[in-house]
Amino acid sequence: xxxxxxxxxxxxxxxxxxxxxxxxxxxxxxxxxxxxxxxxxxxxxxxxxxxxxxxxxxxxxxxxxxxxxxxxxxxxxxxxxxxxxxxxxxxxxxxxxxxxxxxxxxxxxxxxxxxxxxxxxxxxxxxxxxxxxxxxxxxxxxxxxxxxxxxxxxxxxxxxxxxxxxxxxxxxxxxxxxxxxxxxxxxxxxxxxxxxxx
Length: 198
Ligand SMILES: N[C@@H](CCC(=O)N[C@@H](CS)C(=O)NCC(=O)O)C(=O)O
Hints:
single chain, binds glutathione, alpha+beta
């Protein structure tokens, strides 16, 4: 049984979406986290070493960091094909998009939000204007990041774009808006939203 350590309307919400897609047995444990305004506190019940969400426990095996959790869960529950297995041709692209999400895309958005210039050649990531076109190129040719196949990578990207595409952090793109809609309209996400409060 998977326990998801979760705070409503946070980065852990999309793991309810993923667990629903996977038809995995899971329970949700709501925890507190620190907030940007300095209020709130890390919850001693949360096994995440930084007190953040998401974290999961699989009968005591703890996994934290969104990309790692996505990979762990799609390997662990392969039935619905949400992640290509080891040896499958799409596996390399899948791992690349998962790592790109946390290693490049999130830092790019935060850099823009903070109005930091990304020191090209020093930072391991790039600015949003450079990070987005490779995603847009893929999605101009295919419905999903792995082509015709929906995967857990789309859950990370699609939910993030659904959140940011209306705001100033992302260049406006009908293609990305359509993709975000395609991902978030899935029935598993509708079920997930109903469970977001626990
Ligand atoms: N790199 C982490 C980021 C997790 C994260 O920052 N989560 C936020 C909620 S959206 C959080 O728990 N913030 C509380 C804190 O920073 O202590 C991941 O992708 O899983």
